[in-house]
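Okay, can you check this protein?
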Amino acid sequence: MKRPLALRLSAVSAALALGAAAGIAALSMPAASAATSGATGYATQNGGTTGGAGGQTVKATTGTQIHAALCGRASSSTPVVIQVEGTINHGNTAKVSGDSCNTAAGVIELKQISNVTIVGVGGGAVFDQLGIHIRESSNIIIQNVTVRNVKKSGSPTSNGGDAIGMESDVRNVWVDHVTLEASGGESEGYDGLFDMKDNTQYVTLSYSILRNSGRGGLIGSSESDLSNGYVTFHHNLYSNIDSRAPLLRGGTAHAYNNHYKSLNESGINSRAGAKAKVDNNYFEDSKDVLGTFYTDERGYWQVSGNVFDNVTWSSTGSKNYPAGPNPTSNTTVSIPYAYTLDAATCVPDVVSRTAGANTGLKVSDGNCTPQTPSPTPTTPTPTPTTPTPTEPSGTNLSIGAGSDGSSKADGTSYGNVRDGNMSTYWSPSGSTGSISIKWGSATTVSSVNIREAAGSTGAVGSWRLLNADTGAVLTSGSGAGAISFAQTSLKKITFEITSSNGTPKVAEFETYAS
């Protein structure tokens, strides 16, 4: 009799502990690296998926900084590459507001945006109990990250319990070299690891690990949600999953060179007219790995080159239509993109050496041998010549106003930025921080001048200028000096330093009406 998922996980943990006690060394994980190569599968169609290629690269170590990078763009479609390192969790993920974003606390919210890459770098990126939600968005790449233990019930909750969830008119998403994992099934508070619904199309999941969950993922939330599809799954490991690997309602999916191990109840569940092309996969120690299950709304499949190693099959009956024990095709599926198949017999080995986060983004060469892809060549963009902004004129509105900030280094003061004295200054307690000017009533401002203290010129790196009344980003850029923006009436304006070259020292934060 099959044990509940939570008990199976306990057994796995015990086995790992026993191995450690016996002196079996754990494999060390190579350092994560930035994105290379390009999208594959259905993500190459419909114009392709390039994410934030060609845009600014921003480093983030918190969820709030990820949201800030989205909100700091000139528009919701301005390309950006967000390099993430460290643990992202509820404690460091707040809502950030701006014209180029629509974020929320307690989840990484990619809503109503496009042209974004999120990639783990350095020591790796872990989204702990915090899901990634993609909604009404397009041209998104998520690469080299781990998302774990996202719950829909219990505490804390995030993203409806999905590790990565997509819904509502999503197009062109490539998720690559990620590790998605839970610690149980629905009764333990978890939902799907990789869900798509409500008109999500042109998605590829490649070289990834999905494990220890009751539900792998779905394409379509109900038998009437049939506008999803054109999804590719290749070189992934599904391990210790009860069902939905994936559940496919309507639409078309292509699954090739995946390793399915310990699918405990069912695997690829094609139903409601869906079509699945299933090529050169390795199914191991599993049950009912392909068919239509839990419904009489039948789906279809085209199979070739698969290995079924210790796979058991149930009997055909009401709402249960397994493809085995001798799976044969009942449809044909035309694939519009080029791809190379590894032999199914080598899939467990090549997937074990390439799939998941922190594996060096290795891929198969098509002959069962892992390789590190070369970065896609790019032509350097000429540095534009930007005219030096004219220093503002008129009355410095900061004199006589108030001020505050996020932090201050010893011996510095918020008030030093509005005293008209270049020999005094404010510094954050670290390499980044924010300083604000505030008034008792609404004041019209259209330009500021950030003056660095003597000896620290060039220390201010990238920054955002915020309407602190609303959280809206007025403008963003890099380097201190004169900054102009659309005339705005506000009570508080914030200069937020998001990167620096040394210790920033702001002597004066001048504000002007024109």
In short: The longest helix spans residues 5-21. The CA atoms of residues 254 and 335 lie 8 Å apart.
